[in-house]
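Quick log. Single chain, no ligands specified.
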Amino acid sequence: MSGSTLVWVLLAFAAYMCFMLVIGALFMKKTKSSEDFFLGGRGLNGWVAALSAQASDMSGWLLMGLPGAVYAFGTGQAWIAVGLFLGTVFNWICISGRLRRYTIVADNSLTLPAFFENRFKDERKILLGVSSVVIVIFFLVYTASALAAGGKLFNTVFGFDYRMSLTLGAVVILAYTFMGGFMAVCTTDFVQGMLMLVALMIVPILAYFLIPGGLTDALVSSGVDSASYMSLFQSGGEPYSAIDIISQLAWGLGYCGMPHILTRFMAVKDQKELNKSKKIAIIWVAISLFFGVAIGVIGRAYLLPTILGSDGAGSTETVFIAMITKVFTEDIRLPFIGGLFLCGILAAIMSTADSQLLVASSSVAEDIYKQIFNPDVDQKKVLRISRITVIVVAVLAYLIALDPNSSIMGLVSNAWAGLGSAFGPIVLMSLFWKRTNFYGAVTGIISGGLTVIVWDYLPLVGGETLGTVTGLYSLLVGFILSVIVIVVVSLCTKEPSQEILDEFELVASGKDIQE
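-> predicted structure:
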């Protein structure tokens, strides 16, 4: 990249980051209480709720992890995208409305742990403490994945040292999340969601028409068999097993238990806006996942003679960065526009990291400090502790992400499985099965989270983990086990009180409930 081109790209990045900081500063003045900081006073409109939820969901994984996997192994990796699309549709259609109503009925719960506590009338605050600890543990890993993606972006584009790049991205994300809280995060996520969508659509289309000789010939020249590479049932030239496909589809289960997505449902203004959000979100995610896969395939052909992942050519996870750079600095000389599209990758990273920081801080400040240790604390002190927690969580995630060889896909996979297994089953059961009780909820959360830790981290079979030996994604195992535990324990212990059953019936009636 020439000196003048680099200047234009730097200007685009600087303008984008300044814009995000301005949004944070504007909302800082409007953030007066912990409810404002965590849920924006339940005032989200349909567009902001939809794009904020999906942008915070997809992260750098959509523009780096997924295209990188497809680039390396072929379209067989698209089963993850299929699973995520199905999970998104289920989440918006089946969970969003009922969860929003239930959190209002359950003492206007501001966070997912608070919802569990109020849903099951847990005066001992055991559910609150257990679920908050799970959130902090797995969100540290999740936030680290986003920060690592930011470090790789700046390192690849500008040649900055990875650690310096990591620091730069972390500081900007931390600044606007610290200042503006939930509304700043949601507004920036809305802007970032639109930018991501435009970048995802335009870049691969332009690159496709710039491939000399056509896509099929270029794929062959890149060293792959085009038929197996384009097959949904092949991966890296090898047949895909049923276990592989099931494991990738199982990613969709994670949506039921993602606190940073579920809080968007809780914050929507009313049922009318929520219905609008459903349509917008489903269309956005369908387009984004399709083009995320397309980037991997088209990038394999377009970037020739460079083949990422070989001869020191860079990680396959940087395929989209390389495509944008080549399109807008070599073939079409519009470096400022290219810089803005590179900001689309930064947008994906920032929109997830900010949401994760906010959810983790809410678990510590609202759920652990206020609800368990100091119930009489005033709102201003909770707000101050929330902002301090944002800094602490960001620093810890930064330390985890310091390894430049950390895999974005691997970090996201582990965190997604942990949160999905711990919370997905209990969210579903608490919303749709009235016999679910406190004991089932506690054991369900613990069993789901522990299963992922055991499955992915403990070398129990010949020095290897159960995940490596079986090939099964830990989310699928943890989710199923947690559901079984919830059902069995709930049926073997005391039935919920009449008050809990009455609240369940009120929510199940489908009426729009306001505060």
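The mean pLDDT is 85.
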